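Hi all, posting the design record for the shared folder.

TITLE: backbone redesign
STEP: 1 of 1
STRUCTURE INPUT:
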């Protein structure tokens, strides 16, 4: 069953910023881009770089090591949409940022 987890205060993630949270031994990058929040698995599948350190442009984050680009909206690799990162719904309410996660504890 999905669960909501509070991961940060809203003011900890400014426009254009990113943070990494670790939930159930999984690193998840959260981005604020053009007023919207996005959450995606943080590790690039190519060689393991942190996507949170990448550059966001046109709805995609570029891996800081080799510039693989992933769409923030659905996690698809911009050059081959069959390769995808997991994405997670993000809820912002009452000054808190929450992720809605599948049951990752199992």
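Okay, here is what came back for every position:
SEQUENCE:
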């Amino acid at each position: 069953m999905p669960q909501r987890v509070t991961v940060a205060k809203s003011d900890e993630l400014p426009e254009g910023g990113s943070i990494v949270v670790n939930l159930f031994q999984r690193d998840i990058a959260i981005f604020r881009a053009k007023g919207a929040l996005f959450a995606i698995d943080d590790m690039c599948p190519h060689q393991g770089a942190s996507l949170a350190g990448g550059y966001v442009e046109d709805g995609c984050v570029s891996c800081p090591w080799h510039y693989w680009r992933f769409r923030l909206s659905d996690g698809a690799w911009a050059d081959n949409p069959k390769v995808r990162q997991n994405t997670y719904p993000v809820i912002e309410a009452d000054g808190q940022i929450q992720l809605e996660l599948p049951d990752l504890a199992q």
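COMMENT: The radius of gyration is 13 Å.
Let me know if anyone wants the other runs.
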